[in-house]
Amino acid sequence: MEEIENYIPEEEYPVKKEVKKIDSFTVIVVILLSIILFILIFSLISYFTSINRPKEKNENIKPTITIIKPSPTLVIKPSSWATDSAILKLEEKINSQGESLNSIDLNETVLTFPSLDFNINFEKK
User: Fold this and answer.
1) Does pTM top 0.90 for this prediction?
2) Residue 52: pLDDT above 70?
């Protein structure tokens, strides 16, 4: 019964609008044209703003001169350890040991690698 009460004849159906599908070529062309238009508008705006900007003359520009003053040297009083005789002797010993270590010849000709050329076979006998 409910179907009969809610029945609408075919002539009175609401009109369905057909949606046209846009092909991919058209979409690509529209995107490219919009990008080109955006670049064109941006370049025109930048061109006209650069025309109206006042140009500075290079003749009026003078470099600023900065005078660099050296920092004052501080006179530091040496500590009591720097003039102590025991510390000075220890420093002299350390320097002499460093000189003797630098003069050692580390190339020993007596120490050569042993011959590692062994005749090894992995075949079954």
Assistant:
1) no
2) no
